[in-house]
């Protein structure tokens, strides 16, 4: 018998898995609807990362100047199905990634604990800020959640069951995770650490499975690698710039650790309350007696997959002082809820455990939602402070459309601007104009100079940038130009934004433009 085969349980888990699944389905549905509606209806604008995806998703590409392509490709497909980008659709896609990740958390937890305790694991995971306020933003961190969770699940199942389908799925999930964000390599490296620490390299079945996964991984990643080589690795250069050394590595690290503590604080508080409110004999939560080989194996897997990527992420900041953003480790906390449930609730017999879990989770989610939206959108709107979520996105789009209608008869097919400004226009205008980011073909590789003359364009930028090298030539050849202002907030807490605009008329009324309005 192999090392892994010895770990396969010989008894079946207690039932109620189907009922637990139904409860979690309703929870996931309520979670998705509640957060999506609030994100769609309360703020007037979206996070810059979500706006960035609005722009990048306008064209199918195998890579973008900052990141791999998968989040933008997925959003492109969603936009095509539902008729273009919108604030509600973007919020739905972002929260959908969080729900999909929790499905895999449930599947993994079901392999380690009873269904009722697996529910506790999923609910605790949902209270991480990466699955609530941070999951409102559709960016590469958010989209990496389901693929990283899938990789963790299929690796575990591949090791324990030895089934080829799980190794194939692991290769696919790992490849898609890397097509989402390169930092997925840190989470995937934890799997190799586990192979070493558990001496799984001595099991021929595991080695064959890993080889199969690596083959699938290479196939999935190969088109993007080809794109990187052809285009001189733009995301790698961008990442190098983002990781420039900080002046004080210990300040950076301390700030990062405090930030992470705040993001897991609600999950930890609810877990503590569940322990305190339960019967005294369940306080420890664990099974009586010594842990079995399988339980030690599971706990070791959760610890390695939780701690390894975090340690690897922190190491460059500690050793070299590299910059470290708290959002970059969003996918690394996926095992945390399962680990807490496995450690403290695995042997819990309290019949009220689930009831308390659902009540505390409901209170926590509603509290997080109210505090976040009050601080980010409602209060700034009331007091007049300019904040990202009360940016006058719709007014900006209306003003730009009015300018174009006055001076041009052809449809607006191109906008030349920064990503934030152009993305807000593309979010609201129909037909949706393509955004030529900063008049830079390195950023917008699907556009070129000939498109400006053949399609025409609205050029819009801050007045202070009008003389910048990227914009000055466009203003000099404009058929019309001018300025307008918008209030962002009001009173002493608000600002007035001054925009310069120019229209570039298309030749032959846009008949030569390769982008047709639709």
UniProtKB/TrEMBL annotation:
Pfam families: PMT_2. One of its GO terms (molecular function) is pentosyltransferase activity. This is Glycosyltransferase family 39 protein. The chain crosses the membrane at residues 24-42, 88-109, 116-133, 167-197, 209-230, 250-275, 300-321, 327-345, 357-379. The keyword Membrane applies. GO terms for biological process: lipopolysaccharide biosynthetic process. Keywords: Cell membrane, Glycosyltransferase, Membrane, Transferase, Transmembrane, Transmembrane helix. It is a multi-pass membrane protein. Residues 66-227 form the Glycosyltransferase RgtA/B/C/D-like domain. It is found in: Cell membrane. GO terms for cellular component: plasma membrane. It comes from the Bacteria.
């Amino acid at each position: 018998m192999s090392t892994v085969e010895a770990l396969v349980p010989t008894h079946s888990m207690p039932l109620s898995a189907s009922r637990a699944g139904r409860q979690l389905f309703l929870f996931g549905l309520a979670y998705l609807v509640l957060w999506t509606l609030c994100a769609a209806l309360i703020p007037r604008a979206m996070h810059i990362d979500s706006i960035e995806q609005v722009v990048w998703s306008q064209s199918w590409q195998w890579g973008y100047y900052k990141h791999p392509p998968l989040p933008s490709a997925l959003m492109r497909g969603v936009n095509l199905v539902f008729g273009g980008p919108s604030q509600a659709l973007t919020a739905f896609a972002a929260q959908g990634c969080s729900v999909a990740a929790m499905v895999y958390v449930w599947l993994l937890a079901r392999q380690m604990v009873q269904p009722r305790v697996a529910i506790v694991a999923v609910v605790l995971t949902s209270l991480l800020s990466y699955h609530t306020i941070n999951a409102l933003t559709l960016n590469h961190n958010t989209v990496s959640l389901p693929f990283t969770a899938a990789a963790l699940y299929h690796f575990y199942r591949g090791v324990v069951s030895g089934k080829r389908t799980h190794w194939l799925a692991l290769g696919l999930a790992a490849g898609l995770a890397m097509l989402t964000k390169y930092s997925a390599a840190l989470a995937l490296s934890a799997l190799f650490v586990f192979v070493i620490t558990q001496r799984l390299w001595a099991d021929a079945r595991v080695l064959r499975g890993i080889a199969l996964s690596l083959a699938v991984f290479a196939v999935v990643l190969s088109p993007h690698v080809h794109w990187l080589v052809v285009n001189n690795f733009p995301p790698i250069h961008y990442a190098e710039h983002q990781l420039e050394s900080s002046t004080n590595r210990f300040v950076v690290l301390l700030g990062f650790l405090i930030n992470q503590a705040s993001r897991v604080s609600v999950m930890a508080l609810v877990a503590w309350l569940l322990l305190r409110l339960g019967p005294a004999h369940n306080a420890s939560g664990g099974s009586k007696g010594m842990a079995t080989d399988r339980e030690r194996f599971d706990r070791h897997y959760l610890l390695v997959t939780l701690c390894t990527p975090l340690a690897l992420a922190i190491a460059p900041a500690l050793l070299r002082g590299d910059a470290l953003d708290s959002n970059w480790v969003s996918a690394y906390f996926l095992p945390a809820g399962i680990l807490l449930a496995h450690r403290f609730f695995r042997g819990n017999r309290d019949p009220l455990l689930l009831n308390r879990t659902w009540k505390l989770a409901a209170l926590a989610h509603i509290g997080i939602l109210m505090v976040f939206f009050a601080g980010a959108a409602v209060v700034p709107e009331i007091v007049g402070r300019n904040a990202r979520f009360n940016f006058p996105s719709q007014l900006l789009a209306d003003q730009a459309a009015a300018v174009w209608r006055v001076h041009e008869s052809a449809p607006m097919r191109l906008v030349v601007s920064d990503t934030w400004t152009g993305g807000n226009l593309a979010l609201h205008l129909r037909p949706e104009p393509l955004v030529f980011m900063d008049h830079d073909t390195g950023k917008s590789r699907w556009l070129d100079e000939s498109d400006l003359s053949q399609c025409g364009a609205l050029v819009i930028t801050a007045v202070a940038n009008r003389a910048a090298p990227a914009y000055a030539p466009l203003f000099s050849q404009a058929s019309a130009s001018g300025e307008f202002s918008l209030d962002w907030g009001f009173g002493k807490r608000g600002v007035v934004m001054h925009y310069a605009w120019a229209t570039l008329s298309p030749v032959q009324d846009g008949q030569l433009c390769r982008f047709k309005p639709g």
